[in-house]
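We emphasize that the prediction below concerns an isolated chain of 171 residues; any contacts that depend on oligomerization or on bound cofactors are therefore not represented. The input was used exactly as deposited, without trimming of termini.
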Amino acid sequence: QFSAEFKAVNPMQQVPALKIDGITLSQSLAIINYLEETHPNPRLLPQDPKKRAQVRMIADHIVSGIQPLQNLSVLKQMGEKKMEWAQNCIMSGFQALEQILQHTAGRYCVGDEVSMADLCLVPQVANAERFKVDMGPYPTITRINKALLELEAFKISHPSRQPDTPAELRA
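Result of the prediction step, given as a C-alpha cell string:
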C-alpha cells in the first residue's frame, strides 16, 4: 500500500481500495454502500429502518471509532508503545460494542441476516487477535465472529487469507 503504484490508486495509501465499474473507491463504507446499491443481492442493509440504522451505527462504531486508532500510520507514531496503544483502542471500542450488540444481535450483529456491520466486525476481530487482545470479556463479539467465519464468503475473504497478507499473519 505504500508503493508509488498504489498511491496512484489511493493517494491516502490506505486499504481497502477497489477498482470497479470504471471508478476507484476507497474507504470501507463507501465500497460497501456502492456494492449494496449496485449489487443488492444479498442485501447488506435490512429493510426495516430501525435495524438499518442499527447496522449503520455498528459499522460506524467499528470503522470510525475503533479501526482508525490502530491504523499502521498511527501505530508507527506510537513507537515501542504501539502494541499497548492498539490493545487499549480495541478494548475500549469492544467494551462499548459488546454492550450495543447485547441489544441488537441475533445470530449476527443485527438479527439473523448478514449485514454491513458484520462485514466490518470480522476484520476488526482479526486485528484484535493480531494485537493479542483477550477476547474473554467480549462473548457476544466472539460468538458473532465465530458464526460469520462459518460462512464461505467470510472464510475466503478473511484478512489472513489475502494474497498480500504478510507471511506471519497468514492463515
